[in-house]
Every structure is written in C-alpha cells, then in structure tokens.
Design brief:
With about 475 residues, the protein is of the alpha+beta class. The chain is about 30% helix and about 20% strand. The chain is built from 13 helices and 21 strands. The strands form seven sheets. A six-stranded mixed β-sheet has the order 11-12-13-16-17-21, sandwiched between helices. A three-stranded antiparallel β-sheet has the order 1-19-18. A hairpin with a 5-residue loop joins strand 18 and strand 19. Helix 3 runs parallel beside helix 4, helix 3 packs across helix 5 and helix 9 packs parallel to helix 10. The longest helix has 17 residues. It is globular and about 75 Å long.
Length: about 475
C-alpha cells in the first residue's frame, strides 16, 4: 500500500506546473512496437518503464487473445484502469482537474483513443507520478477481467540474502490460504487457524498448529461467516515488511495472547520442498504426496508407487493433493492415465463453445489399484483438473474438502514491449462432464474437514478415512 502524503493543494499544483513535461510522443514513450503481443522466445531483456503505449499493447492483447475477448465489453477494463488512476492520485494528494473519465461508446478503438487522451492529459500534470500511475492502471485493467489465472508479472524482486529454498513471510500457513484470499475468498470457512508452522517469525513467537487467529491487525478474519480482507496480511510477499499483529487462542489451554510477527526470510524444511514424497502405510498402501504438477512429476509419482510395490502386493494408493497449487496439464493427463484409459479428462473451450478435448495417454501403464485422493481448499488449477477427472470418471474417490475453485483455464504468457509478462487463459476449463469448476471447486465424495483440535493434536482425519475406505 502506498502511504498517503498530505500536501497543500496550492503548493502541489505549483510544484507540478514548474516541472511538468509532456508525455513523450508515441514511439518514444516505450519500446512497445504497435499493439501486437507475442509469446515469449527465450529470456526477456531488462524490464523498462511501463508507459501508456505498454498499457495499450496489453489492452489489445487481452481483447485479441483472452478466451472471451471477442465478446468482452472493453469499457469495463478501461473504467477499472481509470478508477485506479484517480485513486492513486488521491493517495498521493495530487488530484488534478483533467482526471475525468471520458464518455465511452463501446467501439474498442474509439474508446481507447478517448481513454489515452484523458490519461495523457492527467499524467502530464504529475510527471513525477507517471511511472506509478502507469503501473496501477495496467494492474487494474488486468484485475478487471476478474480471472484467477490472469496476471501481469512485473518488478519481481528477491530479498537481498535470499537463497534457494528460502521462504519469505510470517512463516505459517492457515486453513485459509493464499489462492483463496486472492482468487476465491467466498469458499473460506471460519474459524481461521494455523495449520503449519514453517519457521521464521511464527516459530520464534511460539505459534503451533491449531492456534486460532481471532484477529489480524485488529480486524476480524470473518464477519457473519464471510472472509474479510484482513486475512491477506498473513501472506505478505517481498518487499512487504510491515509487522502483523495477531490475537490468538489456544483451545487446549484456553490461553489468549497477542503476537506481532514481522515478515522476513526463513529456511524451509527440505522435505516440504520436494514435489513428490512417498511412504508405505499399513504395510500394503502406497501413500504419495504430490505438492504440484511440475514437469516430470507424474512419472516420479508413478515410479514411487512402483518402488513401494516391489516385493509386495499393494491394496491401494492414497494420493495426497492437499496444498497442490497446480502446474502442467500434461502431467495431469499422464497421472490420470495410470488409473483409466480411453477417457476424456477435460475440455478447453472458447467463448463460442469451440472446445479442445484432453484425453488420457493410453501408452501409460495402468496400475489397476484402488485410488483415494486427498483434497482441500488449497488444491487449485491443474490439481482440480486431476480431481474432477478422478471423480467424474469414477477412477477413485475424493476425501477431504472441496477444492479451491481456481481453474479459469491454462494461462498463456505474452511478452509486452517493456519486457514484462502478461498471462491469461486463451481457453476456459470445463470438467469431463463439461461442468464449470472455476469458482465452484470439486466436492469430495467424503467430506472430512480438518479442525483446530485435529491440527493441534497432529491428527489427520482425511487420511484416516481414506485408509478405512481402502480396508473395506
């Protein structure tokens, strides 16, 4: 958040007038070549300033390539951009008379010209804020899509002392996670409680799994059962470093206390960084934890099952997808194919209903083992592709809680003229039964939620239920 700077209006206008320089002419303002956008080829060059030409390039890139771009009302994007522009002016105490939204007609090119004219008149009055205004405007245009797979990646920085495997933040995970806060907060359920202490400030403050978070920076995490924006402070990323005040309750002792945690670097458990981990349970059940559908993850999971199968007869597989944020659809297809052949796993569709079909890879050897899949609200994107395929195709049973509902469609990256990356889906994801999963999620066959008492005691009720089902 930008700190509000209060200044006398007359002094601000006088300073602006003294140093105002007009926006550079088109072609000199940025390296953007026209309004075309292209898929990245190799590593991009050094990032340069975001300008109105870059914003124009992003605007027409979205309209030309986004899955519903053909029918999208572009005025909603321009309105969102201008709202952000004026709000940033207000935050800096620098509002100007020229900052008025032009009338829009619905013609995309005509409306862009009107928007650009108003934008230039506004930013010419505050040249010292020009870069910041361009950034917030483009961020708002992308956010205006309301799509959980639309991103503008820019100004990506790492902490100075960062080392591979380090985490940054408060050092905890809660039952309401980052993807929920960002993409689908309506699915979050109270109470808010700690599920994992990873290190850093949370560990130093003595937090434990099961501790209930009653307030964040003095605000309730839930009001009338609905998640509030306060929860987002639990997942601060670099360079955010403001301390976060928590009010906590430990149910086992009745203790209530406050703790102030400052975001920072912390060393993560190496086991938690492994994409695939496995072990044998009850002497005949293969348990595989898959934290993401990274390249080669499907084959690694299948090799893990094969090794656990050596010298014994397995009675089933438990695939733990809790906390799996997604990844490659190709890896999803390969892993699904080990449990079923000749199946459609998903559809990727345009707004006019033209769909590409994702099918199993029948060259993958069938395992011919009963399957239980553990899911939760952190299972997102490609993880939901897998979960819906298992459920719809009756390849196994889902145990745990509904998935995240964050699966608009596979994001495609595009390179902008200032060497930043814009990504969004070119097609919309539908399940094997052509059902919409985005914002809805995949419901489990057996609803087994984790409670604060379970977390505090180290119990895993979903895993226990899955093992019971395999024993039947």
């Amino acid at each position: 958040m930008t700190v509000i700077r209060i200044a006398a209006a007359g002094l601000a206008l006088a300073a602006a007038a003294a140093c105002t320089a007009p926006t550079p002419p088109r072609g000199q303002a940025s390296t953007a070549a026209g309004t075309a956008c292209a898929r990245p080829q190799g590593a991009p060059g050094a990032e340069t300033a975001t300008t109105i030409d870059v914003i124009e390039q992003a605007y027409f890139c979205i309209l030309g390539n986004y899955y519903s771009g053909a029918t999208l009302d572009a005025r909603s994007l321009l309105n969102a951009g201008f709202v952000a522009l004026t709000q940033e002016l207000n935050r800096n105490g620098r509002d100007v008379p020229e900052a008025t939204m032009p009338a829009l007609t619905g013609d995309r090119k005509t409306d862009w010209t009107a928007f650009e004219t108003a934008y230039r008149k506004t930013t010419d009055q505050v040249p010292d804020l020009r870069d910041k205004l361009a950034v917030v405007t483009l961020e708002a245009i992308v956010a205006g899509l309301g799509d959980n797979h639309a991103r503008w990646a820019h100004d990506v920085k790492q902490p100075p002392d960062h080392y591979d495997g380090d985490g940054y933040g408060l050092g905890l995970q809660a039952n309401v996670n980052g993807p929920q806060v960002d993409g689908n907060p309506g699915v979050a359920l109270p109470p808010l409680f700690v599920t994992t202490v990873q290190g850093g400030a949370a560990q130093a403050a003595g937090l434990r799994p099961g501790d209930i978070i009653e307030s964040v920076n003095g605000s309730a995490p839930f009001i009338d059962g609905k998640a509030t924006p306060a929860i987002a402070a639990l997942y601060s990323g670099y360079p955010e470093a403001r301390p976060v005040r928590l009010r906590l309750l430990r149910q086992s002792t009745g203790r209530r206390w406050s703790a102030t945690l400052k975001p920072g670097l912390y060393r993560r458990d190496l086991t938690a960084l492994q994409v695939v981990t496995s072990k044998l349970l009850d002497d005949d059940i293969a348990y595989v934890r898959l934290r993401g559908f990274a390249p080669d993850s499907a084959d690694r999971a299948l090799k893990a099952i094969s090794r656990l199968r050596t010298g014994r007869t397995l009675s089933g597989v438990v695939l733990d997808l809790r906390g799996n944020g997604g990844g490659s659809p190709v890896e999803v297809t390969r892993l699904v194919s080990a449990f079923g052949h000749g199946k459609v796993t998903a559809y990727q569709c345009t707004v006019d209903g033209k769909c590409e079909t994702s099918r199993t890879d029948d060259t993958v050897e069938l395992l011919n083992l009963p399957l239980m899949v553990l899911t939760d609200r952190s299972c997102a994107s490609a993880c939901e592709h897998f979960s819906s395929a298992v459920k719809d195709l009756r390849l196994g049973r889902l145990v745990g809680t509904r998935t995240a509902g964050v699966i608009s469609g596979p994001a495609q990256p595009y390179l902008l003229g200032n060497n930043t990356s814009l990504s969004f889906p070119a097609r919309h994801h539908l399940g094997p039964k052509r059902e919409v999963i985005d914002r809805i999620g995949v419901p489990p066959d057996h609803h087994v939620p984790l409670t604060p008492k379970d977390a505090a005691a180290g119990r895993d009720p979903a895993l226990a239920k899955a093992l019971t089902l395999l024993d039947k």
